[in-house]
Amino acid sequence: MVAIVGMAGAGKSEVARVFEEHGFKKVRFGDITDEELRNKGLEPNEENERYIRQQLRKGYGMAVYAKLNLPGIDSLLKSSNVVVDGLYSWEEYILLKEYYGGQFNTIAVWASPATRHARLAHRAERPLTLEEAASRDKSEIENSNKGGPIAVADFTIMNEASLEELEKETERVLSVLK
């Protein structure tokens, strides 16, 4: 099992896609936020997504996304390897590390704020303004405890260049994991 962590726009989903191409089944923690937005009839935007994330954590704790996804991960692990797209918090990291032990690996995907913010401004789904991207960074660091999992990741992929370079670095990590 591999969990990918990184700031918004770092390239987590692209790394997850490469793992999927190698037979891993993907669990995207953000799907819970998307489902809650639909259930509440809210438009998917940065403000509403942040509200949902904060409400879920307030009601169920900082490890809520990992807790809610454990049954699905366990089910998928019976027949395949799993890649988690979007580990959010230190508390999620601790829960998954204690639950899965040596079967659990983390990959931090890193890109500079300028690179990430430019990507976020131009992405097809849920684009963010530069102000929204900077605000999300601040929130993820101060409110989600995202720095811890990035700091202790088993692998770090630098993503400042092309998609081809990112894919090559991801393949390198995959070769070490196999």
CA(first)-CA(last) distance = 11 Å
Largest sheet: number of strands, sense, barrel closure: 5 strands, parallel
Placed side by side, the strands forming the largest sheet appear as 2-3-1-4-5
The beta-strand count equals: 5
What's the helix-strand series? Answer: EHEHHHEHEHHHEH
> Uncertain segments of ≥5 residues (pLDDT<50)?
none
Roughly how many Å is the radius of gyration? 15 Å
- Identify the overall geometry: globular
Q: Helix tally?
A: 9
User: What's the overall average pLDDT, rounded?
Assistant: 95
Q: How much helical structure, as a percent, in the residues?
A: 55-70%
Class inferred from helices and paired strands: alpha/beta
- Proportion of residues in extended strands: 5-15%
